[in-house]
Design goal:
This protein is an alpha/beta fold and about 170 residues long. The protein has helices spanning about 1-25, 30-45, 70-80, 100-120, 145-155; strands at about 55-60, 60-70, 90, 95, 125-130, 135-140, 165, 170. The chain folds into two domains: about 25-95, Histidine-containing Protein, Chain: A (2-Layer Sandwich), CATH 3.30.1340.30; about 100-170, Histidine-containing Protein, Chain: A.
Amino acid sequence: MRRISMLMLAAALFGFGMTRMARGDEMPGRATAMAEDQIQTRFQSDSDLRNNRIQATIDNGVVTLKGTVDTIAEKSKAARLAMVRGVTEVDNQLKVGSESAKAAVSDSTITARLKTEMLAEEQLRSVHVATNNGVVSLSGTVPTTAARDRAVDLARSMGGVARVEDTLRILPPR
């Protein structure tokens, strides 16, 4: 009798495990990492979301979104873009609006400090600087690749910078 009970318990546990796997509730570690990378790539490829700090983590097929976006529409878009293969649900914990007045001041401070640094170097004076949620965008023209590298290095070394987007163009030689 005891042997039959143990056999039934083992069969029940085995059947439960197979049911969970068959439903696809759990993603293997590699698949989870690939899905998280795919979500981040989607966010970075989207013109509305690329300047926002969004963290996506997946656990048992549920992706949790944390961070800050600028609008309710961006919050909804992030949830849609997070639905990749293997994801069954989105727990959208994104906050709407600047993280605080401090974030806005911080962006302004980063921009002002970088512009000051750029103006101090003749070959960087035509570089346009903009900062949004800690993401610095550099645009305009520079005379050389070395000048471009210098501008990007200055931006990366500035405190509070999360990422640098470089769309600088190098002027053709005269």
